[in-house]
Design goal:
Elements lengths: L1 H6 L1 H6 L2 H39 L7 H22 L4 H31 L2 H28 L3 H13 L3 H6 L2 H8 L11
Length: 195
């Protein structure tokens, strides 16, 4: 009886606010950290298994590894968007097509480079390489960076706006801005390759 009076246990049981505060502390403060920690570990092992073929070939001096890792990541991204994408089919398919064309362009460029090294002697390779750099490699890099950078959003919106302005009043009422935007969108731009 003396203990209950001193600690006011009877009052604490009647008033459940302290219990709610303790529960909230454990559920929201500690619980979120445990969940974040668990998700981080889960993703770490999942990614370790997925990227294991690329990780085992890493050499810090090898530039080809960086390209292989980028291409492997792009393949994973294209596969995930294609399988699990939640956006509408038209823009999703355009994004996947743009990612796959970027992958093909990168692989073709580096495969041409490797083939030319194997065909010629070292001296002939460098002569041919520097002579052809301005013509062929620059064109490949332009295509690669155009796919990575993507369309100019401002110009794309201006094109849709111009299309809207050219319509008559009756057609303006039926005009769907989003459909027109998706029609002009080509799927390029690494900033938009998320779902």
């Amino acid at each position: 009886m003396m203990i209950s009076k001193r600690l006011n246990v009877d009052d604490m049981c009647k008033n459940k606010r302290w219990y709610k505060k303790v529960k909230d502390f454990f559920v929201y403060s500690i619980g979120l950290n445990v969940r974040d920690w668990w998700n981080s570990i889960k993703w770490y092992f999942s990614n370790l298994k997925r990227f294991q073929p690329v990780i085992k070939s890493w050499r810090y001096w090898d530039y080809q590894y960086q390209v292989d890792l980028f291409v492997f990541g792009l393949k994973q991204l294209a596969d995930a968007i294609d399988r699990y994408g939640h956006e509408e089919d038209v823009s999703r398919k355009k994004k996947v097509a743009a990612i796959k064309s970027l992958i093909a362009e990168i692989e073709r460029d580096y495969q041409d480079d490797v083939d030319s090294r194997n065909e010629d002697s070292y001296a002939k390779y460098y002569e041919r390489y520097y002579a052809a750099l301005k013509r062929t490699r620059k064109a490949h890099y332009d295509k690669i960076f155009k796919l990575i950078i993507g369309q100019d959003e401002y110009k794309l919106h201006q094109m849709v706006k111009a299309k809207y302005e050219a319509l008559s009043e009756e057609e303006k009422e039926k005009f769907d801005y989003f459909s027109s935007y998706v029609e002009l969108f080509d799927g390029s731009g690494i900033e938009g390759w998320w779902d």
